[in-house]
Amino acid sequence: MTAATALALSLLIPFAGSILIALAAGNANLREAVTVTTAVLLFADVLWLLSMATAAGPAPALMIGEIMPGLTLALAIEPLGMMFGMIASGLWILNSIYSIGYMRANLEHKQTRYYVCFAIAIGSAVGVAFAANMFTLFIFYEILTISTYPLVAHKETAEARAGGRTYLGVLIGTSIGLQLVAIIWTWVATGTLDFTKGGIISGKVAEAMVPVLLALYVFGIGKAALMPFHRWLPAAMVAPTPVSALLHAVAVVKAGVFTVMKVMVYIFGIDFLAATGSSNWLIWVAAATLLAASIIAMTKDNLKARLAYSTVSQLAYVTLGAALATSMGVLGGSMHIAMHAMGKITLFFCAGAIYTATHKTEISDMDGLGRLMPFTYGAFLIGALSVIGLPPMGGSWSKWYLMLGAADADQLVVIGVLMVSSLLNVAYLLPMVGRGFFTLAPDAPGHGVPQAQAAGAAPVPGSGRPPIREAPLFCVVPLCLTAAGCIVLFIYGDALYRLLEPMVRP
Amino acid sequence: MGVSDILGLFNYWMVIILMMIGFYTVVSRGNLVKKIVGLNIFQTSVFLLYISMGKVSGGTAPILTGKPEVYSNPLPHVLILTAIVVGVATTALGLALVVRIKNAYDTIEEDEIQAADDETEFGDPQAAEDHRR
Amino acid sequence: MIAAHLPILQVAVPLVAAPLSVFCRRGATAWTLTFVVSIGAFLISIALLGQVLDQGVLSYQLGDWAAPWGIEYRVDAANAMVLLIISGISTVVLPYARVSIAHEVEAHNQTLFYTCYLLCLTGLLGMVITGDAFNAFVFLEIASLSTYVLVAMGAKRDRRALTAAYTYLVMGTIGATFFVIGVGLLYMMTGTLNMADLAERIPAIGANRTLVVAFAFIVTGLGLKLALFPMHLWLPNAYAFAPSAVTVFLAATATKAAVYLLLRFLFTIFGTSFPTFEPTLTYLLLPLAVIAMFAASTVAIFQVDIKRMLAYSSIAQLGYMVLGMSFATVTGLTATIIHLFNHALMKGALFMALGAVVMRFGDATIDTMRGLGRVMPWTMAAFVAGGLSLIGMPLTVGFISKWLLVTAALESGLWPIAVLVVASSLLAVIYIWRVVEAAYFEPPPEGVTAGEAPPALLIPTWILIGANIYFGIDASLTTRVAGEAARALLKTAS
Asked: What is the band of A452 on the pLDDT scale with cuts at 50, 70, 90?
């Protein structure tokens, strides 16, 4: 199989899969089987592409067609896209298995539509990952927005509708209103939209206007949730949890920060940005988003809302890394795409498992749950540590490189910001774990009045330890796997670094 | 501009006056038939414009007689015949529409029709149902 | 041999068929005749486009009278494309109309409906293909008069169709009369009515007050015909109350032909060097276009009747076309001409979907749309697809138009205009999404059972949606033809 075929398949598999899933609507088991099979096939194809990309020879590329003179739909492999493609396709498998458990346990409606839109969304995420030029990327970016709308508004209640409206409004408003203008401006100024190492802007756009163009891009990429265009993220929490896991860990937000990174490295060029200092303002906007979102996260009692704001904050890490315009910063930011994906998907899986098992959504209700759901809380702890950035979790690597990048750029204040943010992460993530393990649930035996003795019955055997009441297996296994993934990413951090390093090599 | 200029351009002054009378009638009168009358006057002024411009000083009717003569320009006459036909068709169509409107609304005054339409759109749905054929 | 006479056949075939159709006793027979004629016209227009792309400008002299004394039909890339749009849309609408009109127009009027339809088709095709200014007026009036009748035929469903037709008649006649005054003044100064000849003689005369007045009358008259803000008042009601198939046909073709005539008069006949050319474009057409884009989109958001909402949307889209024109660059004109084509596809599909709703429920208000996602899934899916195209989603034709328009604005250095274009597209998101939410998020009213539209209505709708997506993915043909047309109009080599 040639590289071009593999690339074509990487799009064909998910989109054809979505049609097959729709056709299998009548039989739920068949439909789920098709979903998981499609996900596995896609991941296999992406791994094949990885082997071809890391082997000697030219990078795989595919020209699909020309839409307008000079504007082509084309795919090409490069390190960052390869990493994002792997994350999207790999985590899709786990997310599908988790969805099966979640959707069936909660008796959700319209499940076929859910799986079909999921497949299309992942397909468009892969399209974003492998896009060879900004035009192709924009096309798949928009398809991603439209295909995730039915997922966000899935519950079809009034809140779901309002959430969907915010979601669509902010994302389409930014993409058509800002990003499209930036893209066409680039096209008119430079005559090309191909992603090129070293950027295509230098010399073609007046230096005073470069920050403006950068602003149009960065704020236009609404999926990166840079403040003040972050509102869609908490609004999308009305979706079922597997959708949130998809949106906030795997596809949508990662597509956003991926695009930001791609634009800054391949359209502007890191050296160009460093030389002209056009991205300095972005360092401060990203840092502000980082801190503000963390502080807001601390005030939220709803677990999903807290995780949403945590995501806004973590995404700003990636933008910050790119804005530092140093190779360490770019590498740190890029690695954070992978690390955060693994960590956040674990956290969201846990949130969904808690909801499925206990129907609880507010953190203050979750005292003592750690004893009932040790696997879930254990995974949550691991995910939280990764997000905070402590070894031996993968998140520590990305934080380390980000700090190195800040030092390289002589932005010592940023190092301080990163440290403060880690402390804030501790403040909004760990208490929940602590309360889960170390306090007792309000209705657990041994808490307050000994009900059993009051009723005259014999004391509960086993010295008062409550039985384990986990979420269904289909939910628990994926979250344990992703938690393990956080540790795996720590061990293989070097491999990831070597994969990404060609991006910044001159 | 001397008196001979004003008198010499008499046709064109008439064109303008008729055009404005016609246009004003269309705009200011509420009766649908009167609007069509105005439209007709408006169109007639255009006919006068064309015919006036075709007249060649000292020219006669453009019919070939064999003797060398100065002829008026026949082309505007041809154009105006076409335009007159268009005008007739428009008038006929307009009046036919007025007859249909009269049957449907029982009035041909613009303001009353507007009121009935507004009622259909915004007003009492039952009354609107009653009005409908 | 026929190939040499294609230009006249393009107009003569529907023209002759029109009185013939009066003799058809049943509506179905009249429909068959109309459909066959329309297919013929479509094939002729394809052949003409092919010839133009091969040979360049085609010139045909009626009755073998040499131009500029005789009437000449001139076909270049610009009109060939518009001819294709008109005949193509007509061919796709007619299968749709067979069922839709049988339902919406009284039985005894159906034959006459198709007669007027054929006359309208003749008029539109003639308006576009002719190379003679007065001939353009004649065909303009033929098209307009038959349009007034077609609109009035919606009276069976709603009597407001009659007042809409009457208002349209009055305003349209004033517009056409202004146009003919302008043509008369042109004739007075140059002595010719042939468009190519006028183009040569006008620069020789230069800045003459009569010519400037002629320019003003022609621009105003055509502006009224193409519903340029603020002369758009006739359009919303005419589109809302006409029979559904008529709305589809008009929305896709009638105003486009007027836009084409304006392009022809502005760029070919008066030319960019005419003294009032640039000021008119920059200070009149550009601001009016921008106002149309915003005002019409905003009004559309508040409409209860979805047909009228899309009519206001059409006024906004016409604003885009005029905007592209006002840049007077190759990219700008390419954007205008390609939007003529793309908008016909988009609005045609949207109005067809609405027509199916009207046929089932009698009207198409926002209340009627509630829950339609479940009741009429294919129809609503077509509406969503057309709506996404209108918003400008990539892979649809709407995106192509938007891209070219913003590119044209940025190339001319008018970045505020580029921002305004995208801002007004966002307004389209609001009014389209209103309908999508009502259809998919709200339960259908009591007692409404699932019942899709008949295939006769769905298939033409989906053909247009398919074209929407096809020309959004492979825009090479449309961009090429539009680009050539633009260059021909600007009389530049590249």
From this structure: very low
Interface predicted TM-score (ipTM) of this complex, two decimals: 0.90
Of A139, A156, A173, the CB nearest to C394: A139
CB atoms within 10 A of CB C474: 15
Q: How many Å lie between the alpha carbon of C17 and the closest alpha carbon of chain B? A: 20
Q: Is C30 exposed, middle or buried (0-12, 13-18, 19+ CB in 10 A)?
A: buried
Sign of CA dihedral C82, C84, C85, C91: positive
Interchain pair C410, A184: CB under 8 A? yes
Which chains share 3+ C-beta pairs under 8 angstroms with A?
A: C
> CA-nearest residue of chain C to B102?
C162
Tell me which residues of chain C have a C-beta less than 8 Å from any C-beta of chain A.
388, 391-395, 400, 402-404, 406-407, 410-411, 415, 418-419, 422-423, 425-426, 429, 433, 437, 440-441, 472-476, 479-480
Band of pLDDT at residue A453, cut at 50, 70 and 90: very low
| Max Cα–Cα distance, chain A, nearest Å | 86
Q: What is the pLDDT of residues C148-178, one digit of tens each?
A: 999 999 888 888 999 999 999 999 999 999 9
- Cβ distance B101 to C134 less than 8 Å, yes or no, reads no
Q: Say how far apart CA C287 and CA A166 lie, in whole Å.
A: 32
Convert A361-393 to b/e letters by CB count within 10 Å (16 or more is b).
bebeebbbbbbbbebbbbbbbbbbbbbbbbeeb
Beta strands in C94-233 (DSSP E): none
The 10 Å CB-count burial string (b at 16+, else e) for A10-21 is: bbebbbebbebb
The C-alpha angle A387, A392, A398, rounded to 5 degrees, equals 50
Backbone φ, ψ for residue C328 (5° rounding): 55, 35
Q: Express each pLDDT in C100-148 by its tens digit.
A: 998 888 888 899 999 999 999 999 999 999 999 999 999 999 999 999 9
Whole-number Å distance between alpha carbons of A106 and A129: 33
pLDDT of residue C56: 85
The mean of the pLDDT values for chain C is 91
What residues contact residue C463 under an 8 Å CB cut-off, 6+ apart? C92
User: Kindly report the CA angle at A258 between A255 and A262, in degrees rounded to 5?
Assistant: 135
As a whole number of angstroms, the distance between CA C244 and CA C242 comes to: 6
Domain B3-132: which topology? Helix Hairpins (1.10.287)
Task: Summarize pLDDT for A331-347 with one digit per residue, the tens.
Answer: 999 999 998 998 899 99
Distance from CA of C411 to the nearest CA of B (A): 42
At C224-264, the pLDDT tens digits run 999 998 999 999 999 999 999 999 999 999 999 999 999 99
Global confidence as pTM: 0.90
Q: Tell me the domain boundaries of chain A.
A: 279-506
CA count, 13 A, side-chain hemisphere, A243: 28
Query: Would you kindly state where each structural domain of chain B is located, as residue ranges?
Result: 3-132
Contact C386, C465 (CB under 8 A): yes
Q: Which residue has the higher pLDDT, A181 or A411?
A: A181
- Burial call C338-355: b when 16+ CB within 10 Å, e when fewer: bbbbbbbbbbbbbbbbbb
Best residue in C433, C435, C470 for a mutation probing chain A (most A CBs within 10 Å): C433
Neighbours of B116 (CB within 10 A): 21
How many CB atoms within 10 Å of residue A298? 15
Report the residue of chain C nearest B73, measured CA to CA: C191
